[in-house]
Design brief:
Elements (H helix, E strand, L loop, with lengths): L65 H10 L3 H5 L9 H21 L10 H17 L4 H10 L1 H4 L1 H14 L9 H7 L1 E2 L2 E2 H29 L2
Antiparallel strand pairs: 1-2
Helix pairs in contact: 1-3, 3-4, 4-7, 5-7
Length: 228
């Protein structure tokens, strides 16, 4: 009968002389980001079925980023608006959908900065720049600075005081230059010619034209009754 022999430690080896396990042998336990289960395959969670190939922020400058949203939004513009963006209606349904995408992207990035190993160190600066540009764009489309400030402060424990302070300082400077501009019609009415607003000039012209028209009609009525 054949016997299998297994190598064993010598009985002379004591717990103190036992070879130490190198620290590099220990690996952090991987958990599902959704249900925190440790039963994972290379591609999915066996407990809840979530795909592990999904990444919350993707790659820098990808279609999931501000730049991808912005390109698709601008591509949807009519031809005349692409050449004359002043006619863009920032209160339209398309603009509101664009804003919702920006808000979600901003939230995802802030969350990612507070999560370990979510953002590769080499990509961290690219996403930091994207966060700043998101602040600019959100302000341009009418998001109140206080709303953005609260989003940043609510994640301070996760992101750390340094990043929080940097983003709050940037928000303070950005809101001085970036804000929701008036619709083109209102801007035209507020434009001044010779010190007078266009709206005032048009009102004067309209009232004058109305008075002249009434006077002419009244003159014609009087003339028809008494003769020329």
């Amino acid at each position: 009968m054949d016997y299998e022999f297994f190598e064993t430690f010598s009985p002379e080896i004591t717990p103190e002389s036992r070879p130490a396990i190198p620290s590099s042998a220990y690996k952090p336990v991987k958990r599902c980001p959704s249900c925190l289960s440790v039963f994972l395959t290379d591609t999915s969670c066996e407990a809840c079925g979530r795909s592990l190939l999904y990444h919350p922020v993707g790659d820098p400058f990808s279609s999931k980023s501000l730049y991808g949203f912005k390109e698709r939004y601008y591509t949807s513009f009519p031809l005349y608006m692409k050449y004359l963006p002043v006619f863009e209606d920032k209160t339209s349904a398309a603009a509101k959908s664009y804003i919702r995408q920006l808000v979600k992207r901003f939230d995802d990035l802030i969350n990612a900065f507070g999560m370990e190993n979510t953002i590769i160190a080499a990509n961290r600066r690219y996403f930091y720049v994207e966060v700043m540009e998101l602040i600019d764009e959100l302000l341009r489309y009418g998001t109140r600075p206080l709303v953005i400030q609260q989003k940043i402060e609510n994640k301070m424990l996760e992101t750390g005081p340094l990043l929080t302070q940097e983003l709050l300082l940037y928000l303070t400077e950005s809101k001085k230059e970036n804000y929701l501009t008036k619709p083109w019609g209102q801007s035209l009415m507020d434009h001044r010619i010779g010190g007078m607003r266009v709206e005032y000039i048009l009102k004067v012209v309209l009232i004058t034209a109305t008075i002249v028209a009434i006077a002419v009609n009244y003159y014609e009525i009087i003339s028809s009754q008494f003769g020329k």
